[in-house]
Specification:
This protein has about 210 residues and is of the alpha/beta class. It has 2 domains: about 120 residues, Rossmann fold; about 70 residues, Winged helix-like DNA-binding domain superfamily/Winged helix DNA-binding domain (Arc Repressor Mutant, subunit A, Orthogonal Bundle), CATH 1.10.10.10. It is built from 10 helices and 5 strands; from the N terminus they run βαβαβαβαβαααααα. The longest helix is centred in the last third of the chain and has 15 residues.
């Protein structure tokens, strides 16, 4: 069972997401909060599998919420979502530790898929977000010259939330080849997971 907490000041949005999650098999909403402070108090005590947080809360930015959450060393995945896609919110959210960023336009059809993807090592992003990430990635790709051209390609697709299989299909190589490149990327960036690789790319100005 995937447990989800929602942090969203917009009542209609918050309650709509809660109904969607509770009506889906294999998912349960353990709490829905209208502000960051009340959410932190509860989530730090009872961490869910995934936290969905709006990018702009009444008492703090979504990225600040993510930073405070992970200071508590909780074992959870965080997805930031918004109806206004601001570059600052997107990139600061990733730097704070979020694994994905979604437009509210994905609701409801893409939301459950994104939650599941976050639980299985993915980095789900709405198409609009992915375009901004990849554009920034390309503009700043010279900042990590130790990566090969193919490793840059793999990392760019990883930042878009692609699985190893999907990366292989896009680059016309096998999943084993993708895993080989990922292993080299992790070694060169001194990280141990997809999530850490995306965060490192953000910190190096590639996102």
């Amino acid at each position: 069972m995937i447990s989800v907490a929602i942090v969203d000041a917009q009542r209609d949005s918050r309650e709509g997401v809660q109904r969607l999650i509770d009506s889906a098999g294999g998912y349960t909403c353990i709490g829905a909060f209208a502000d960051g402070h009340s959410a932190l108090d509860a989530i730090l005590q009872w961490p869910p599998t995934v936290v969905l947080v709006e990018a702009e809360l009444p008492d703090m930015r979504g990225s600040e919420f993510v930073r405070r959450l992970f200071k508590g060393k909780v074992d959870t995945e965080v997805l930031v979502y918004s109806d206004k896609l601001e570059d600052e919110d997107i990139f600061q959210g990733f730097k704070a530790g979020a694994v994905g960023f979604l437009s509210k336009k994905v609701f409801p059809s893409g939301l459950l898929h994104a939650i599941h993807e976050a639980c299985t090592g993915g980095a789900p992003m709405s198409p609009e977000v992915a375009r901004r990430v990849v554009t920034s990635f390309r503009l700043n790709s010279k900042q990590l010259p130790m990566l090969s051209e193919r490793e840059y390609d793999v990392l760019a697709l990883l930042c878009k939330g692609f699985s190893s299989r999907k990366i292989g299909e896009r680059l016309f190589v096998s999943s084993n080849t993708v895993r080989f490149h990922l292993k080299n990327i992790y070694r060169k960036l001194k990280v141990s997971s997809r999530h850490e690789a995306v965060i490192m790319a953000a910190k190096e100005g590639m996102l």
